[in-house]
Fold this sequence. Notes:
Blueprint: E1 8-17, E2 21-27, E3 40-43, E4 46-54, E5 57-63, H1 64-69, E6 80-84, E7 104-113, E8 118-123, E9 137-140, E10 143-150, E11 154-159, H2 161-166, E12 177-182, H3 184-195
Amino acid sequence: MFTGIVEELGEIVAVESQSDSARYTIRGPLVTQDAAHGASIAVNGVCLTVVDLKDGAFTADVMRETLERSSLGALKPGSRVNLERPVRLQDRLGGHLVQGHVDGVGTIAAREPSEHWEIVRISLPEGMDRYIVEKGSITVDGISLTVVGVSAEEFSVSLIPTTLELTTLGRKGVGEPVNLEVDVIAKYVEKMLDRS
């Protein structure tokens, strides 16, 4: 379980393609400080398992399912990624409850800069709008954000300077993919209502 508060902007060091998966090595000196084999680390909002650690970098296996349902398959050496360690029970919950399970991939549709913040509009996969509400939470590339507006085709978020500086959303351009995770509570509510 994560909070969507990015701890570190990491970098893909190596990508080893395999027949039905890939192995990624990711530089992240902060998130690897207390990591061990089997630990979880969110990479652009995708929960991955550490299989090796060395010199401030970790290696994780990424199965085909994850490559097909997230934007991780587009990463290459030099790509920057948002990194977060799992929340501990004694930690403050600065964002919202994030599982690290991507629900779909959106695309940055527009960026509207202002003097001190920026509005970013992101396209939605078909049908995902039912889980998103204005002023609700959404995770974009592992970043917990508040929804400013939503329609059937897209939603918008407002980014403060800190988010622009310390995450991949400050660098991604129009047309680039982003991983989306909706609030898990909305999915549970929908399932319970479907049963009645």
